Amino acid sequence: MWMVMLKEIKELLRDRKTLFFMIALPILVFPLLIGIAIFFMSKAVDKAENKVLNYAVIGAQYAPALAEQLSASEMFNEVLINVDDDIKAYVKAEKADFVLVIPDNFSDDALASGQIKLQLYLNDAGLNMVRKRLDKIVEGFAQASKTKAFASLGLNEEQQVALMDPIVIEKVDVADKRENWGEKIGGMIPYFIFMLCLQGAMIPATDLGAGEKERGTLETLLISPIERHHLVLGKFLTIAFAGVTSALITVSSMAVWGMVLSQGMAFKVVAEFMSAIGAIDFILMFFMLVPVVAIFSAVLLSLSIYARSFKEAQGYMTPLVFAVIIPVIFATLPGVELKGGWAWVPLTNVALAIKELIKGTMDYFQLVAIFSSTALIAAGLLFFCVYWFNKEKVLFR
Amino acid sequence: MIDISQLAKKFAVENPKKLSEQEKKDPRLKGRFFHSVENVSFHCSSGEVLGLLGPNGAGKTTTLRMLSTALTPDAGDIIIDGTNVVKTPVLARKMIGFLSGSTGLYGRLTGRENIAYFGQLHGMSAEQIDRKITELADLLDLHSFLDRRCENFSTGMKQKTAIARAVVHDPKVVILDEPTTGLDIMAAQTVLNFIKGLKDKGVPVIFSTHHLDEVSELCDRVTVIHHGKTHFSDTFEAFKAQSDGSLHKAFMRIIEQGAK
Q: For residue A226, what are the domain limits?
């Protein structure tokens, strides 16, 4: 069994394609892609921030001070619009980035004029800074109007504050930071890890089953004097090992790159969060993953040995990704908790358990039940795999 | 010494509609089963080489796969030196060296590693494997490429490595499925010389082939199978005597006689 495993690992390590997908991709390519995406995004934001916006005002005569501030701003450039122009068409034709319509009741006396409604015409589909900049200027006028109104009513400061927000709800969160964060991201972590394990195991699995068939080495291997279950176990362990390694590499690469990119800033938050979780919970999480990876490996190996070629194997494995995604996505849905029926859904229960472990609210007795049931499924699938490896119909298709 | 008696193997036909016209006419198709091998018997003693002949689809590969324990026969017996292959396949595997027609190597391992891996699977020690590989490399002329990765090997190099791998554990019987198909003349000759070497050592060899000149060069016994049945199994001389002079005519005659 170990002989088979050692040889398979040796072969895997010599395969550039596998190495690329297992190591280069998570360590270099993904961060690079994410980095490029962030770079272009920040560039787009930069561009939007520095862009001088063309604008037109209708009814400037009702608010000369506002109009003057707008035209004085370096970030705005006024264009002229005819009063009888259709404003929507005007903005759509990109003659101006926005058109502001000032009503005739504009004044600094809110008590007399009532609420003033400025109309802003803009194409809000893209990234733009119109509201942000406009709010800044308009806020000044609104504040002045407020102050004046409060003064004329003779209100003291406390009354002013009360009038602005007569009733406020103050939230006292009894969940500690860990539980709070755990609820928010705890669902995503098992999702990522499951997917990574599955992806990492997939390529070696194709190679170890269908690959042997396609290269014509399977027959020779089958007639060597090694018990069939040893052969299956050797291959199974290799696939599981590859899955876990690939997941670990990806996770640690994400951690390292995250640290590098945020220059240690985010690290403090992460470290705080991580240190709250504690070693035992980490180990438990890892243990929970063991039967899950075993399930993946057994299913992948069974599919792979059934396939006649690489291509066929890949065809069989694609639907498996969906079959895994769905139960794990359930665990990320709000309201799905480790109670009642959900505790008995395979994979979902493990994902939920990992989430609970991250949150620090795990019932450890339940963990034993989940672990055993998942391990039972894994063992069942492994038995099936061995049985499958003994079927002539499967091996010589 | 290897004795095969009344071997039979049938395969379930999953979708009878998909079969070709020729397959539908084959007398071996019975209901939902295709009786690939119905009744094959032959024997081969120590120091003998047996040539297994038959048209394509006659059941040669299925027969050899049963001999190699890759397939389990539905009926019949295979006895090698008193060991029942059908009943104790794992034990028998240690006695058999098998080279399948479509065999391949692990491309990312070197020739030496490929051979050594199977030596390990046969439970040999590192020292034994080393010694055996050197011996086989001398015999099969492997030295020039033994430590290179197999993915770049030529067909001849691959076949020689595959043969070395098949006999690394000193099997008591060697079974080769079309060992010279697709090889150039030089490589084919190396393979034939190797078979001769085995014969001289007293190891019985069973090999299937379509080349009658190989049969006349090597074989002591000839077995002809057609439509899954043994049509002829006797000495080479008896085979030759089926027709005066031409081996091809002898072969054709046996097939025609069987069809009647």
A: 2-28+176-395
ipTM for this model: 0.87
Q: What rounded mean pLDDT belongs to chain B?
A: 89
Decide if pLDDT at A335 tops 90.
no
Last-in-domain residue among A132, A164, A196: A164
CB-based contact (8 Å) between A220 and chain B? yes
**Same domain? A59 vs A112:** yes
Same-domain pairing of A266 and A194? yes
Where a domain ends, among A114, A132, A164?
A: A164
Q: Which chain A residues have a beta carbon less than 8 Å from that of B96?
A: 223
CA A350 – CA A353 distance, rounded (Å): 5
- B123: which chain A residues are within 8 Å (Cβ-Cβ)? 225
Contact between chains at B68 and A226 (C-beta distance less than 8 A): no
- Which residue in A225, A393, A396 is closest to B122 by CB distance? A225
The size of the A-B interface in CB pairs under 8 A is 72
Query: Does A227 contact chain B (CB < 8 Å)?
Result: yes
The pLDDT of residue A277 is above 80: no
Per-residue pLDDT, averaged over A226-241, amounts to 92
Put simply, the answer to whether B102 touches A216 (Cβ < 8 Å) is: yes
pLDDT of residue A80: 85
Query: Does pLDDT of A275 surpass 60?
Result: yes
Whether residue A353 sits in one domain with residue A226: yes
> Hey, is the C-beta of B9 within 8 angstroms of any chain A C-beta?
no
Query: Which residues in chain B have Cβ-Cβ distances shorter than 8 Å to A392?
Result: 71-72
The answer to the question of residue A46 being in a domain is no
Rounded CA separation B162/A194 (Å)? 40
- Domain match, A209 and A302 both: yes
Most B CBs within 10 A among A17, A18, A219, A391, hence the mutation to make, goes to: A219
Residue linked to tokens 């406390």 = A158
Q: Is the pLDDT of residue A264 over 70?
A: no
Measured between CB atoms, does B103 come within 8 Å of chain A? yes
Domain B2-102+172-259, CATH homologous superfamily name and number: P-loop containing nucleotide triphosphate hydrolases (3.40.50.300)
Q: Give the chain A residue nearest B103 (alpha carbons).
A: A216
- B65 to chain A, any CB pair closer than 8 A? The answer is yes
Q: How far is B102 from chain A (nearest CA, A)?
A: 6
Sorting pLDDT into bands at 50, 70 and 90, what band is A159? confident
Number of domains in chain A: 2
